Amino acid sequence: MEATAKKNYIYAITVLGILFFTFGFVTWLNGTLIPFLKLACQLKGEVQPFFVTFAFYMAYFFLAIPSSYILKITGYKKGMALGLLVMAVGSLIFIPAAQNRTFGLFLAGLFTQGMGLALLQTAVNPYVSIVGPLESAAKRMSIMGICNKVAGVLSPIILSVILLKNADSLEKAIETATDTVQKNLLLQQLSEKIITPYIVLAVILTILAILIFASSLPEIKTVEEKPLAGSSSKTSVLQFSNLVLGVVCLFLYVGVEVMAGDAIGSYGKALGLPLDKTKYFTTFTLVSMLVGYIIGIFAIPRYLSQQAALKYSAILGIILSVLVFVTTGYASIACIALMGLANALMWPAIWPIAIKGLGKFTQIGSALLVMGIAGGAIVPLLYGYLKGAPFNLSNQLSFLICMLPCYLFILYYGIKGSASPKFQPVS
Asked: Which of 371, 298, 377, 287 lies closest to 334, judged by CA?
C-alpha cells in the first residue's frame, strides 16, 4: 500500500510539474510581447505597453472566484483540462489580432489566456500544497517553481528569436520609413510573425488538456484537512487573517515579480540600452529565480522554515531595490535580475502559509489568492504612469517607489503577519 501511495504521489507531482512548465512558458512570454507589440502596434508613451501585463493579470482578478465555483462542479482534474482549453482559445485570438494589427485584439487574447490560467492556478496551487504533508509544501512548490522558471527562461529566448531577430535594424527601418505603404508593409510583416508560434502553442495546450482529462490524477477532498485551533466556529474565509494578509502579500509579491521579469526590458530601454540586448533581460531574472528555487528545495524545511524563507527573501528584495536606485547601466540591470533570487521563495512560502487550516474554505481561499495575482497588472502600470506625464519621475525613482513598499509589507508578513498565535496548529 505504501509503495502504491508513493507511486501515485510521484505520478501526481510529475503531472503537476508539466502543468507548471506550461503556464510558466505562457506567462513569461509577456516580457517579449511588451517590446514586440510596442513596435508592431506603434504604441506611444510609457503606459500603453504595460497594458500587456494589465490585460493578462487582471483576468485573474475577475475569474478567480468564478473559478472556485467551477472547480466545485468539475473537480480539480477536469478544471485543469478546461483551463488549458481556454488558454488555447486565447492563443488563437492572436491570429486575427496579428492579421489586423489590432492592439485591442491582442489584449483580448491575453485576457482570455489569463482566464484559463486563473482556472488552472486556482486548481493546481492548492493541489500541490495538499497532495503531500503541509510542512513540506514549500519544497513541493519550489520543485514546481523550477518547472515554471525553466519554461520562463526558455520562452522569452524562443519568442525573441522568432519575433525580434535583428530588432534594432528593424526598429530603425520602421522609424525612418518615409513611405506610408512601405512602413505599413514592414509593420504587417512583423505582426504576422507571431501567428505560427501561437498556433503551435494552441495545439500543444489542446493536447495537454486531453491528456490531463484522460489521466489518473486523483481528486483531493479539502474538507478533511485538519483545522487550526479555534477555526471550527468560523463561518467565512475572511475570518482567517493568515489568508487575508496573505492575499495582500501575494498581490504585492506578483507585482514585484512581474516588474523584475517583464519590466526589466523597458527599464533597460529607458537607460538607453539597445533592443537587441534588452529583449533577453527577462531570461536573466528567471535564471536568478531558478537558482532561488533550487536553494528552496534543499533548504526548506530542513534549514529554513517557510516564514524564515519569506523574511530573508524580503530583506534581500529591499536591499536590491535600494541598489537599483543608486546604481545605473548594467549594474542597475544586474540588481533587477538578482531580484529573481529574492522573489523565488516568496510564492512557495506565501501560498501554504495563507491556506493553512482553511479546511472546507480551501478552494475559495485559493481563489482569493489567485485574485492577488492582479498585482502583476497594477504595479507595472503604476511604474509606467510614474515615468510618464504628469509625474515625469526618473526611471530609477519610479522603480524604487513601486518596489520598496511591496518588499516592506512582504517582510511584515514574513515576520508577524503570518504568525498570529491564534492560528497555531492544533497540538
From this structure: 287
What DSSP designation does 425 have?
B
Give one word for 166, left, alpha or beta, with left for phi > 0 and alpha for psi -120 to 50.
left
For the entire predicted model, the pTM comes to 0.87
**Complete DSSP assignment for 28-86:** TTHHHHHHHHHHHTT--TTTGGGHHHHHHHHHHHHHHHHHHHHHHHHHHHHHHHHHHHH
Alpha carbon dihedral 310, 132, 258, 193, in 10-degree steps, equals 160
> For 220, phi and psi rounded to 5 degrees?
-125, 130
Long-range contacts of 50-53 (CB under 8 A, 24+ apart): 50/263, 50/266, 50/380, 50/381, 50/383, 50/384, 51/103, 51/107, 51/381, 52/106, 52/107, 52/110, 52/262, 53/258, 53/262, 53/263, 53/376, 53/377, 53/380, 53/381
CA distances from 336 to 85, 181, 264, 362 (A): 34, 40, 7, 34
Q: What is the mean pLDDT of the chain?
A: 87
389 contacts 300 by C-beta, under 8 angstroms? no
Which tens digit of pLDDT belongs to each residue from 381-426? 999 999 988 889 999 999 999 999 999 999 999 988 665 434 333 3
Instruction: Describe the chain by its helix, strand, coil percentages, rounded to 5.
Output: 80, 0, 15
Cell numbers given for 67: 473559478
Q: Which of 329, 232, 224 is nearest to 271 (CA)?
A: 329
Cell numbers of 6, please?
A: 508513493
What are phi and psi for residue 384, nearest 5 degrees?
-65, -40
- Residue pLDDT, tens place only, 76-109: 889 999 999 999 999 999 999 999 999 999 999 9
CA 165 to CA 167: how far, in whole Å?
5
Domain 2-217+237-418 has CATH 1.10.3720.10: no
Give the type of residue at 19: L
